[in-house]
Design brief:
Strand content: under 5%
Helix content: over 70%
Number of strands: 0
Order of helices and strands: HHHHHHHHHH
Number of domains: 1
Largest sheet: none
Shape: globular
Number of helices: 10
Length: 210
């Protein structure tokens, strides 16, 4: 039983860490611009935030979930603005200057971890996503016990961490094949996509409340 819950947790962790969202793109961009350590620590920050949100959803803190539902509009606006800012900063970033700065200034893994952890935690609506995921995996009944919750949440953290380890490793393996011009345009593309994520979040709110 415990092994089954642990495996389900790993599968959930692997699934939610696919770098399709703004934070995932940011971690990929950091890997290309700064290297494997920066990318993995950024991914670990995302994994930690997801684990915290998963734990809250698993414990079923009703008052927190109700509060998020009631204040969803404000959290979506805040999240949209944060994503807009991140996308804009990536878009205007100069990879040449970043690479030179990385050679001069040693990358501090803890800073990379904390910075993206705080960004990821700025979107607590992720808790609601985990509520839906747990229902989809038919885990709602199993999460009534501390032991079951521990196995699932631990599995989520392990799955997400492993996913970012492999993602950062694969990107780093091919990183040397990328020319500066390629990285420059990837910055423009990823920055634009992240910026569009933010715009979409804000415009969807305006349309729904228009």
């Amino acid at each position: 039983m415990e092994l089954s819950l642990f495996v389900k947790g790993i599968l959930i962790g692997l699934a939610v860490s696919v770098p399709l969202g703004p934070m995932g793109l940011l971690a990929v961009q950091r890997t290309l611009n700064k290297g494997r350590t920066s990318g993995f620590m950024s991914g670990l920050g995302i994994a930690t935030a997801d684990t915290i949100f998963a734990l809250i959803a698993a414990i079923g803190l009703t008052f927190i979930i109700n509060f998020l539902n009631e204040q969803k509009l404000y959290f979506q606006i805040l999240g949209g603005l944060v994503i807009l800012m991140v996308g804009f900063r990536i878009f205007i970033a100069n990879p040449v200057k970043q690479l030179r700065a990385n050679r001069i200034k040693r990358i501090r893994p803890v800073e990379e971890f904390i910075s993206i952890l705080l960004l990821a935690l700025s979107n607590p609506l992720t808790i609601l996503m985990f509520v839906a995921v747990f229902a989809g995996f038919k885990l709602s009944g199993d999460l009534n016990h501390f032991g079951s919750t521990f196995y699932v949440v631990t599995g989520i953290f392990l799955g997400a961490s492993l996913s970012w380890f492999f993602i950062s490793t694969i990107i780093t393996r091919f990183r040397k094949r990328f020319r500066l011009r390629t990285i420059f345009w990837f910055n423009k593309l990823s920055g634009s996509v992240i910026f569009i994520f933010g715009l979409a979040a804000i415009f969807s709110l305006l349309l729904s409340h228009g």
